[in-house]
Amino acid sequence: MLIAQSSEQEDMRSVQMKIITGYRFQCATTTCLPFETIATSNIRKCQMACLSEEHCRAGSFHQDTSACELFIDILGQTSNMLAEPNTTTILNILGTRNPPG
Description:
By secondary structure, the chain is mainly β.
């Protein structure tokens, strides 16, 4: 995925993302609560919202509510996912953000 923002200087950001369809985080603690929830029309816009936030490490898009949840701390939470139809979870693959940030 690649996003470009035009300004006086071209700001190009890219990151590789893993897409998990039909699952969401099942958190044992509150450490994986979203830091932001926004309304988006599709998963692609949710991906772009995560990419535009420097600290975003993952997101969950809920098709039935058009809610995009953005997460910072999801370490250890991916091994215990809960099946949920109409939800897509995206994970930034560590070390692929360009430029780093």
